[in-house]
Design goal:
405 residues; 13 helices; 50% helix; two-stranded antiparallel sheet; alpha+beta; single chain; 10-stranded mixed sheet; elongated
């Protein structure tokens, strides 16, 4: 009777939507499939655009704020990604002599970086206090680095690991079986950085000498002149004492044993992954680039912004290809949806015939089908908006995971 009363007179939009809703809710599986198809086709290009825009912003802002980066000859992209974004790919190493060379030039302030090791999956960044001033990083809790063996962690590291000032953090070995015998260093957390929404939030900062301790180049051990176990002494002379591998090495730096930590070899030969060069002015930067242009000194001096521009050009070239693929898939999906509705009309011939017999017109059928499509598009639009909001909210973290690292 209700349907008869609707088709017996002019059916309004509200009535069409009501009947369409009842039909779609009855065929839940078919409706869910159609909504999912429309949502995916809409969300893919929009989400990709958001993520690429955020990746461009993050990459460029970091690169633009870093004037010059000095490193070993080789891949400029590996050098920039490791020095600016603390990527896993470690470039060919240079030595502290590069810092001495920049200081001697009087054209730029050098900020050494040694990014090679990790602590519970987070990169350990060995540097100096100048880095924090250069990046405008401030301490939210605790204090700045003051002693060998201490670390300052990024806000995201503190949140994910649930650690804070006064806790400790162990460095991770480079391989499962560390044949070099370098023990993990237990580092005390001296401070937590204010959130900066940059890769610094995901880093563990230590003094450059602490990074060398992690590698085993600087180490401390019990006094060889008064060992607890006399069997560790291989040879003793008036000028020298030789001990074997059983000599106890310290894996934590404290006020009691800090004086026992010492260098082996010349400090100028100790490794770095890169050096940030901050020129005094534009003229000094140009002169400095000219000095390293031919590469005779065994270094390359790159402009991070130029390197990242090249990377983004490749990313957006790939994006154009993805857009073309998404367009083709979208057209194919639309055609498939049209086919589904066409087949649906064939399968629903008895229903349509019933509507005609009780006085409905072709316009009534069109209104019912249009109402079904409108409801499907409405639900897809709502899901698409919710997904876009989520992608936008977590775009920073998604870009770090998918694009940067």
């Amino acid at each position: 009777d209700f349907l008869l009363s609707l088709v017996g007179s002019e059916m309004c939009i509200r009535d069409s939507l009501y009947i369409a809703w009842k039909y779609l809710s009855f065929n839940r599986a078919r409706t869910a499939t159609l909504v999912a198809c429309v949502t995916l086709i809409a969300i893919l290009p929009l989400a990709l655009q958001l993520l690429l825009a955020e990746s461009e912003r993050q990459l460029l802002s970091r690169a633009e704020s870093t004037p010059l980066l000095l490193g070993a000859p080789g891949s400029a992209l590996d050098l920039v990604m490791n020095g600016l974004y603390f990527d896993d790919e470690v470039p060919q190493l240079i030595s502290m002599m590069a810092v001495e060379s920049l200081e001697a030039s009087g054209l730029a302030m050098p900020i050494p970086l040694y990014v090679r090791f990790k602590a519970r999956r987070f990169p350990i960044v060995g540097t100096t206090l100048d880095y924090f001033d250069f990046r405008a990083l401030t301490i939210a809790e605790g204090r700045q680095l003051a002693q060998l063996g201490e670390c300052v962690i990024g806000a995201e590291v503190a949140a994910r690991l649930g650690i804070t000032v006064g806790d400790s953090l162990l460095s991770s070995p480079e391989t499962v079986f560390d044949l070099a015998g370098v023990y993990p260093l237990k580092m005390q957390v001296a401070g937590v950085l204010q959130r900066s929404h940059t890769p610094d939030d995901l880093a563990v900062f230590v003094d450059i000498k602490t990074a060398w301790v992690v590698q085993g180049l600087v180490h401390g051990h019990e006094d060889v002149t008064r060992p607890q176990d006399a069997s560790v002494i291989i040879e003793r002379t008036d000028a020298n004492v030789v001990a074997n591998a059983r000599l106890v090495e310290y894996t934590e730096i404290t006020t009691e044993n800090i004086d026992s930590f010492h260098f082996h070899g010349a400090p100028g030969d100790y490794p770095l992954s890169a050096v940030i060069a901050v020129p005094d002015d534009a003229k000094a930067g140009t002169i400095l680039r000219g000095r390293y242009l031919d590469g005779d000194a065994g270094y390359q001096l790159v402009v991070p912004e130029t390197v990242i521009d090249g990377l983004l050009a490749n990313i957006f070239r790939i994006k154009h290809m993805l857009d073309a693929v998404i367009l083709v898939v979208g057209v194919a999906t639309v055609l498939a949806l049209i086919l589904v509705f066409a087949l649906s009309i064939r399968l629903r011939q008895r229903e349509i015939h019933t509507v005609f017999r009780i006085g409905g017109s072709r316009l009534t059928i069109v209104r019912l089908l249009a109402a079904e499509i409108a409801i499907i598009v409405l639900f897809s639009g709502l899901l698409c908006m919710a997904a876009i909001v989520l992608v936008h909210q977590y775009s920073n973290e998604l870009v770090r995971t998918l694009f940067i690292g």
